[in-house]
From TrEMBL:
It catalyses: oxaloacetate + acetyl-CoA + H2O = citrate + CoA + H(+). Keywords: Transferase, Tricarboxylic acid cycle. The active site is at H266, D324. It comes from Humisphaera borealis. InterPro entries: 2-MeCitrate/Citrate_synth_II, Citrate_synth-like_lrg_a-sub, Citrate_synth-like_sm_a-sub, Citrate_synthase, Citrate_synthase_AS, Citrate_synthase_bac-typ, Citrate_synthase_sf. One of its GO terms (cellular component) is cytosol. This is Citrate synthase. It comes from the Bacteria. PROSITE patterns: CITRATE_SYNTHASE.
């Protein structure tokens, strides 16, 4: 970044372009639309590696061999069931509690009773990463069933994380194609450098707080509609519009009113988010398989509007879909309830958060930036009766 561009970015706030850590985990080239996890291109991983292999890669820095993968799968299967006190916490939450809040609360509750809680050593962190990754799908699906007056389904040790998520959600063995789509979505969402939730996790970890505290905080950041919450917001928008013509009108109106359109734009990508390229294909294929391409086609209609609409300067807006855009129509076509879209993001991203917490703990310095004070000086405390 040139000095003048850096100065403009600094004035806008949001830590744009600020290097917050040295990291071996993820590389993003925002101009080229390139995403790399530990040296592997995202396209290679999504086509040739499972979510479990990706988790291993993120945590251990290498792809597992057969024995290592079998061990990880066994460890994950052994950790999927929730402790009784966590199920009790989930059941005690008031009706209507949002699934992201349930997930955050349950992760916080999982700290109680975790045998490694107080250790930030690498081996303890690795065990906690496995347990949390295994427990996330169980929390999300158990809550969904409980809120619908259904019994939670016990995880099936023969299924993957993706397979178990669909199985525990619907109570029947999922079709292989759907498991493959869900697995690919999890690989695509697993990691993304110093995004807001990962940065949050690292800030918490850098105080030497533990993995559960860091991931509880990360979930709070992921919930927001400018971050992970955008996938749910995209689907609400598509449903509210109902058809492509109304959606086109609505988007133009939003742009004219300077409103942010969910699922578009990115702090780093200046071109198509490479993950959106894969999710776009998945949304199309799912629509065709379901005999309902309406949501995919509606989504396609919006792309040229956000790319080509002119700014007052005459330049095109140049906004592209991000990871949250096509995941919305893909998950909706898979019959996944809207308010589980962001929790699914969490089911994937817990692996990336855990990798960053481990990296932070390995080479730590507290993260404490500074601010540019713009308030007054010289005030004196007046007696309360004299205050306006
Ligand atoms: C997993 C993820 O977190 S991916 C992102 C998910 N979030 C969303 O989809 C929400 C919609 N998108 C946004 O709000 C933003 O694009 C963000 C939060 C992702 C990135 O924010 P920033 O880095 O601050 O945006 P940036 O500075 O590049 O914006 C440039 C301009 O494009 C505009 N813009 C950016 N995104 C959008 C959008 N989705 N709709 C309309 N205008 C937008 C900005 O308002 C800004 O306009 P200005 O120059 O007239 O002020
Ligand atoms: O990197 C970001 O700012 C947001 C994002 O796409 C992600 O977390 O996947």
């Amino acid at each position: 970044m040139s000095e003048s561009t850096a100065a403009t970015a600094a004035a806008k706030g949001g830590l744009q372009g600020v290097v917050a850590a040295q990291s071996d985990i993820c590389f993003i080239d925002g101009d080229a639309g390139r995403l790399v996890y530990r040296g592997y291109e995202i396209g290679d991983l999504v086509e040739n590696a499972s979510f479990e292999e990706t988790a291993y890669l993120l945590w251990d820095g290498k792809l597992p061999n057969k024995t290592e993968l079998a061990t990880l799968k066994q460890q994950l299967s052994a950790s999927m069931a929730l402790p009784a006190h966590v199920l009790a916490v989930i059941k005690a939450l008031p009706a209507g509690t949002q699934p992201m809040d349930v997930l955050r609360t349950a992760v916080s509750a999982l700290a109680g009773g975790d045998t490694d809680l107080t250790s930030n050593e690498a081996a303890a962190n690795r065990r906690k990463a496995v347990r949390l990754t295994a427990q996330f799908p169980t929390i999300v699906t158990a809550y969904h069933r409980i809120r619908n007056n259904q019994q939670p389904i016990a995880p099936d040790p023969s299924l993957s994380i993706a397979g178990n998520f669909l199985y525990m959600l619907n109570g029947k063995k999922p079709h292989e194609t759907l498991v493959r789509v869900m697995d690919a979505a999890l690989v695509l969402h697993a990691e993304h450098g110093m995004n807001a939730s990962t940065f949050t996790a690292r800030v918490i970890a850098a105080t030497l707080a533990d993995m559960h505290a860091s991931i509880t905080g990360a979930l709070g950041a992921l919930k927001g509609p400018l971050h992970g919450g955008a996938n749910e917001a995209v689907m609400h928008l598509l449903l509210q519009c109902g058809d492509a013509d109304s959606a086109e009108r609505k988007i133009k109106e939003m742009l004219a009113n300077k409103q942010k359109v969910p699922g578009f734009g990115h702090r780093v990508y200046r071109t198509f988010d490479p993950r959106a390229t894969f999710l776009r294909k998945m949304s199309k294929q799912l629509g065709e398989a379901a005999g309902n391409s309406k949501w995919y086609e509606m989504s396609e209609r919006l792309i040229p509007i956000l790319r080509d609409t002119k700014k007052p300067t005459g330049e095109p807006l140049g906004l592209n879909p991000n990871v949250d855009f096509f995941s919305a129509s893909a998950y909706y076509t898979m019959d996944i309830p809207l308010d589980l879209f962001t929790p699914i993001f969490g089911v994937a991203r817990v692996t990336g958060w855990a990798a960053h917490v481990m990296e932070q703990h390995k080479n730590n310095r507290i993260i404490r930036p500074t601010d540019d004070y713009t308030g007054p000086f010289g005030k004196k405390v007046e007696p309360i009766e004299q205050r306006a």
